[in-house]
Amino acid sequence: MTLTDRSASTTTPAAPPGSSTGSSTRSPGAERGSDDTASRIWHSWTPVRQRTRPAIVRGAGYHVWDDAGRRYLDATSSALNAVCGYGESRIEAAARTQAAQLHHFELSRFTHRPAAALAERLTGLLGGPLTRTVLVNSGSEAVEAAVRIAIDLWPLRGEPRSRVVTLERGYHGSTALCQSLSGLPHLANRYRDPIPVTRVPLPREGAALRTADGLERAFELIEQAVAEPHEDGPPAAVVLEPLLNVGGGIVLPPGLLARLRRLCDRTGALLILDEVFTGLGRTGAWFASQHEDVRPDLMVLSKGLNGGYAPIGAAVAAGHLAEDFAAEPVVGGLRYGHTTSGHAIACAAALATLDVIEEDGLVARSARHGADLLDALTAGATGPLVTDVRGRGLVVTVEMADADLAARLVQAATARRLLLRQQGRAVMAVPPLTIDETGVREIAESVAGALDDVRTGGRP
């Protein structure tokens, strides 16, 4: 029995309309998630008026099933976070055991063992200066914590800085502060920006960044934003993703992170790497920054941290940054946190997830199967509708000529029982790290077939 099925054997029949007997307040169909009850959900990031979508009711491995019994290969990893796939008994058992012992205790005045163990584990994985972990509930909260640390630090050093440099096409979360970091139109912050932000544009074509000229141009634009005089003063921090997710599955030019690290050292700006999406094996390394052996001042983690089994996020800071906060005049530390920050069940699930990643060699599998998937899609996703195929690890992007074609490709793939992710013109295959040779082949064949359906207007 799982944590969510305790009442499965004691279903109470619904009382007839107007009846005063029985205590159930469930509407008809609530048990199975009918069209009527599903309409009560205000789905995030989607139009309010949209056709009814199927309910996903079960998952196993890298497949999920809907309420009509249809099986899909999930090349979206749910919200890009199901890195260990579905039905992983070792993570379920860890969460169940922790729930029975201590579900949570808040961390502002006390600690608990799962939080302490997770912070210690992350320090060991990251190495070097990253030794102090702030545990939160999501990637957005982790980014906000990291940016707050960077900005609050400078007055303590006697040199107030508040400006942040980001990439225009970056995505860092959905709080007001995090949305203000991005220049993507659909993420526009409708309120007054809480901090000054310089957003650096990159070439629109993903392929343009993979050339030597692309690297030089990208670095030149970032260097200008960081090092040249600005009305808001020098930046407190530079925040970026090592591989852009919502911005279109963009692989940054090799060498850019290393040069950016040297630029930050020269100007004093803190380097914050947002590895919410790329961390914990997704790109074929534990952390995407390890491809260039770059150590940031702060790293942000979330999606892969516990495989989607419970909400969690982390901002891991260099130890000396925490020491600077001893001079903070009010609380002598970080003024940030939430009721369930570092939730004990989530921390236990995260520790078990890290065990699974290590024991099953999922980082190496991501590198190996990601290379195979990139080769297969490069060979199979061809023709005038496709403008680029790129990837790193188990992030492979097929860039279409326009966003409408990308949407049609995702729809055609769904009809073939393959779930893909659309970001503008980009269609991304981001399967769980547990994918195998059979799954890679199925993704490649389904994408090729879906492209044919888009070209011909046919159906599978």
From TrEMBL:
Compositionally skewed regions (Low complexity) per UniProt: 1-30
Transmembrane helix is among the record's keywords: no
Alphabetized UniProt keyword annotations: Aminotransferase, Pyridoxal phosphate, Transferase
InterPro entries tied to this protein: Aminotrans_3, Aminotrans_3_PPA_site, PyrdxlP-dep_Trfase, PyrdxlP-dep_Trfase_major, PyrdxlP-dep_Trfase_small
Gene Ontology molecular-function annotations: transaminase activity
Transferase found in the keyword field: yes
Record-linked PROSITE patterns: AA_TRANSFER_CLASS_3 (PS00600)
The family this protein is said to belong to: Belongs to the class-III pyridoxal-phosphate-dependent aminotransferase family.
Protein name, entry field: Aspartate aminotransferase family protein
Natural source organism: Paractinoplanes rhizophilus
